[in-house]
Amino acid sequence: xxxxxVLIIHLSAPEVDEHVAALRAIAPDSRFVVAYGGDRSExxxxxxxxxxxxxxxxxxxxxxxxxxxxxIFQIVHDRWLQVERELDACFVFEFxxxxxxxxxxxxxxxxxxxxxxxxxGKNCVVANGTNWHHYTRFRRDPALHRHLRSVSxxxxxxxxxxxxxxxxxxxxxxxxxxxxxSAHPACYGELYVPxxxxxxxxxxxxxxxxxxxxxSVRWEPEYSATEVTELQRRxxxxxxxxxxxxxxxxxxxxxxT
Length: 257
Hints:
With about 260 residues, the protein is an alpha/beta fold.
């Protein structure tokens, strides 16, 4: 059993290569690949060979608009899962979601096996009846609800979920189900991914309800370098979001020693 760890990143080519090198130093037994959402000219300069370009413009537009994981999951399925049959799970995380311990993979796998989850996510819960702004955006979206009614295996096709999308752990079966859907409506990924997988019959689990692995993962505010250092000292496995390049570099360097 092997996990494919997919780094979503849009930074300069040298920063990408440095980030991947640091991750491999932290977790030398883990498999890391790059889903690149920046400029194509910069993509060509990335030395890391295990990379794929994400053409979807939602990764280059305004944040938290219609950012979609549809193409990323299709790339993961076609480029890696279909070729490497030993891969049975994916961990999809963004550049500001820091991995600080080599044991992150078995820790996530233990949670998934204990809960029977096909998807593990931060705050991965039912959004209906809440004031979460992405739920209020899409709660009456006709295209989304027509789509869910057409594919749902559940008694209630109107049920919507939400999650913090960075740090998603998915089984091979979940990815395969997702890409088997022939067309997807325009919808924000943090709502659409857990919602669609639920309606396709998969078990989606809020990791915070069953584990403390994501205690240092939050939507915002950003963590400072001082905060990250303290969390490392306490043994944190993941920290998100860390957008300051200096803080990321210091944290990854410290974790790899």
